[in-house]
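Sequence in, structure out.
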Amino acid sequence: MKKILFISDQYINGVIGGSLGHRRFYDILSNEEKYEFKIIALDNNLDKRLDINFKKNRFIDIYTRIRLHSSFLYYYIDEICEAAANFKPDIIIIGRSRLGFITKRLKAILPATNIITNFDNIEFDYVESQFSRKKGLQGYIIKNLEKYIVKRDECDCIKYSNKYIFLSKRDQNRAANLYGYINDDNSYIFPICLKEQINLFKEAQNTNIYFIGNMEYAANVKSIYWFIKEVWIPFYANDKNIVLNIAGKSASITLKDFKNINNIRIYSDFSDIAEIVCKSSLFIAPIQTGAGMKVKIAEALSMGLSILGSDEALVGYEEAEKYLKTRGFFIRANTICDYEKYINNYKKKSQKELELIRKSHIKAFETYYSYNKAKNIIKNILL
């Protein structure tokens, strides 16, 4: 029986994209009887967890940066490597490419073990989005120090791994250009896959458009501000038959300047996305910068929503785009004119057309971004 160890610096049961990406490994591998599977992660209540107690705080973050590393797990590297050595896995999956310091140490301790690095994104590029709101000399210094540290760790993850997993072909090509080593023989494309479809039950009274995202993330704030100022206010603010719904952490605080626009609704706190999203609505993703794949697109497909997104937002969803070309509403939009054109096009759709779109989008989700797809990809990676 193969022994597999997954190492993550995320909460596996968290709600952010990194957590969802790591959860697909945990959910699938922990239920495979032919593997002895263990995990190291932040959660304290995982069935397959190796017994290492973590805490994450500002002191540990500062300490790791002083030591020129980009994840708080550096503080626990001795405990992690000791636990891995005692478990003696045949395969180790490194959850994030920031964990190069662990990869390097484990390759020295367990030279016969196959180490596979999973890329949530290209971390070196993600720093640009992560620190895009920091301005001035201080912001410049902090951002470039972080880029140096991240690149150092990411390079070690690639150098000391045997295989690599990427969310998209774009990330695979970018890693090859930055670091070398990467080719089609030693790497795999494993897109975002979700465990369950999100079933909607609310019927729409108006034409509804949705933007969903964490409003503490600079790229989300920048994109929705752009959309409201350049598209919504000029063309739709006085239209009583259409509503822009914006949902996400800190939304009511971040978007307080727009709370008096009658056809904008803002949701900061909700326990279930199905409580606020109406069936057969339009999901927009005017994301201008970022990295990796956007989980919200997979969620929108699972809900059967029509989708209007930027080139950046739709990275990694090329299979869905091709499948839905003649049977769905999965459209690229990058300019003001694009959004006005396709929103107006969407408004003209009949209920019959919207129902056919809904079914097609759910089918695309099941085919390309569900756990059924994920199981086959993981099986191929572990051969």
